[in-house]
Input
Amino acid sequence: MILPSNFYARDTLTVALELLGKKLVKREPSSLLLEGIIVETEAYIGVEDKACHARWRKKETCFPMWGPGGFTYVYFTYGMYHMLNIVTEKAGCPSAVLIRALEPINGLDLMFKNRKVEKVHDLTSGPGKLTMAFGVSKVHNNVDLTKKGTLYISEHSKPHKFDVVTTTRIGIPYAEEYINKPWRFYIKNNKFVSRSGLS
DNA sequence: CACTAGATTTTCT
DNA sequence: GAAAATCTAGTGG
Output
């Protein structure tokens, strides 16, 4: 059920695409499981990519990206938001997939408590929102997702077919020619995709 | 629904 | 000191 390390040790765009529809699980101290389906991802690939942290962050800050695939890289930005990334490829190839949105399927009560919002739609429909709902922070940096610990990713127990939309990444106006790379993927017509909530 | 401004703090282009 | 892989609340149509 849990995705093995060879799932992550591949081309980043392939992993970003195939992570759609997979299930992110966080186990609370109380044994409660928070679960959500990944519905939106973005790829950040190597030191060439001007939007990728590996290009300009110090290695001490983004060290998980330089390690092997299947680990998390959690980054804190805008003074108040955490971003959850999944490291891909082999050790030495700094690349990762940013999880931008989830469709919550279990543990909704706790997510509402964490987020203090009224609508299910606002729970996890953005990279900063989902980390708040799941209670993900720097503590979860460099966590092994292939082991059944507090955080892992598995196949969806009830997979269904969906169409994938490929588009450009968001929030990286400084990335010059990399702004227009089609490295963002999301599930078509899914209500939880950020900035595209069709009624 | 579209657009704008303000929040808030880690990190160093 | 400036910028940052964002969000929310506010205004106006």
Summary: Residues 115 and 153 of chain A are 22 Å apart (CA to CA). The first helix of chain A runs from residue 5 to 8. The two ends of chain A are 34 Å apart (CA to CA). The mean pLDDT of chain A is 95.
